[in-house]
Amino acid sequence: MVKAHILYVEDDETLSMLTQEHLEQQGYLVTHKIDGKSALETIRNGAAYDLYILDVMLPEIDGFDLATTIRRKDIETPILFLSAKSMKEDRIQGLRIGADDYITKPYSMEELLLKIEVFLRRSKVRQSTAAEVVSIGDIEFEYQNLILHQGGEEVTLTQREADLLMFLWKNRNQVVRRSDILEALWGEDDYFLGRSLDVFISRLRKYCKFDDRLKIENIHGVGFKLKCPE
Question: DSSP H helical segments within 132-190, as ranges?
Fold first, then answer.
């Protein structure tokens, strides 16, 4: 039984052969492309994938540009970056684009499989969840459709923004530890993921300005609290 269909974009012949073989042994259907241009063509031709695994340094179109293009049409399917770059700025850039995680080469197959399983499991939960609309102050939040409504304004969130907002709303008016958020949404408590969390918190604070009663407080050294009228 095929677990999921993965688009894997990697120009390193040896690494891609080993990784694809390992993933297929685990039951995944893998479509492998060696450059961003050919990967984008398969997407534009209507191919559907459950997960994108993208190398950053690619011929034709690099991984960051490919992910940006993907996110314009698809804000839900998980994206996982693979890169030889370990600079903090590169990891943050990838996460800002809308990627779900970033693994630095060389990586272990066990780590890669764990990340894949975490993201696919979350996707299944999202798909099986009935459409849920919650009121966050004066804001109507359509979690499944990734939309915020306030008056005549409408904002479309990324999947990660929606997941984070829902997590905070379910724990509203109480302190939520950073480590608990990272474990629940990213699958691990990691320094670089913590920096990414701060980026997403900043975005949500902008959306909270729709209702001046809403506030995401930073609890120094602990985490965050979404102050929300009941």
Answer: 159-170, 178-185
